[in-house]
Every structure is written in structure tokens, then in C-alpha cells.
Task: structure prediction
Amino acid sequence: MTADGTRPDRGRRVTAEAVGTAFLLAAGFPTRWGPPEHLESCRVPKIFIQSTNDEHGPRTELESLYRDFAEPKQTYWVDSADHFFVNGLDALEETLYQLNV
Result:
């Protein structure tokens, strides 16, 4: 946490548009760790895989932010108990396998 009580960006602000970046993959995207404005202009393909019960990235919050993210983008919801995909790791693995990542 920073001196003003906010969380640091924790590496979400990346140089994604650097030469050779094929895509960004976020599994369990935390919606409460600061605004992700950089994703509004990032043209690199973005893949979000989120738990249906993610306490750090609730569905309504991610859907609200996601609307403003630049295309191309995809979201996949995995039925699981929490942010760490408890009771949903097999489904997470299957989603990754289907995406071929």
C-alpha cells in the first residue's frame, strides 16, 4: 500500500505494445487495485479468465471496466469458489487448454 492508502499498480501497467507481444492474459484480474486506464488504449489482444466468485474482481466490477477496454478482448468465466479458483482449477485448466495458451 502506498503512503496515501492506495495500492500500487502491481505490474498491471505493462509495456504490452512492445514488439513481439502476442497477447495479455489475466487470470483473476483484481478490479480494486487502481484504475486500469492503460487497457483502454492497449491494442494487444487481451484475455481475461475470471472466477464467478472472485472477491478481488467481482463480475459486475470487471464487466463495468471491461466495456471501456480496447479491442481485441475476450472474457471467460470459470465457475469456482473464489479468486484462487478453488473447486474450479480443472475448469481453469480446460479453458487455458481450449485457448491453446
